[in-house]
Amino acid sequence: MNAPQPNLHVKARGSSELARIVRVNEEIKAIVATAFRINLMALNAIFLAKRAGNAALGFGVLSNELRRFAQDLTRNMSSLRDMTSGSVGSVTGVVQYQRNSAILAEAIRLSGEGVPGAREARRRGAARLSAQQGKLRALDIRLRSAVEETQQLVELGGVLARSAKIEAAYGGTFSPALMQVSTDFAEVIAQIKRSLEILGKERLVKD
Fold first, then answer.
1. Among 59, 77, 86, residue whose Cα is nearest residue 172
2. How far is 193 from 156, CA to CA, in rounded Å?
3. What is the sign, positive or negative, of the torsion defined by CA atoms of 127, 133, 136, 142?
4. Per-residue model confidence (pLDDT) at position 28
5. What is the H or E stretch that residue 90 is in?
6. Nearest in space to 28 (alpha carbons), one of 75, 95, 89, 94
7. Across the chain, where does the E strand assignment appear?
8. Pick from 137, 13, 10, 22: nearest CA to 88
9. Which CATH number fits domain 12-201: 1.10.1740, 3.30.1490, 1.20.1270, 1.25.40?
10. pLDDT (tens digit, 9 = 90+) per residue, 67-106?
11. Do the Cβ atoms of 66 and 164 come closer than 8 Å?
């Protein structure tokens, strides 16, 4: 008798769930890297504002606020990264339990008779699967909540970047350089918004 083969639907579903985890983690890593970049940009902006003197006092204040924004964003994304750090293992567990269940069901079908311990194995497998899926759903809720909180923070960052662009116009001879920095802020923050929109649509496990 041929050995039962893993259910192709289970394998495809497992691959899909793992792919979602990878996408979530990649977006988080991208935002963490961008937050680090904003922090460096803010330091550069503060330096430029000091060189510009009184003409760029407002820009300097906003640059300090943008640096705080970058630090808050880094903390938020680090928290998100911690949330999903064990998610690959959880999804792998879900997939493994689904696969084992499919193999057991196929073995029972092919044997045409009861398999010793099959009922207990199914019960344990179902309990483990339910526990792993519960963990992923709970993580999903936390992830969505954290993304929404971060989106609000990024909206504030966008306001600061627009205000910095206005203040850059009063920077005298430093105005072009300040304007370029504020434009860079706006572009990077827009990039973060796009990444957060992707995160907001992702689910670690489907209902």
1. 59
2. 11
3. negative
4. 81
5. helix 87-111
6. 75
7. none
8. 22
9. 1.20.1270
10. 899 889 888 888 877 777 666 666 666 667 667 667 766 6
11. yes
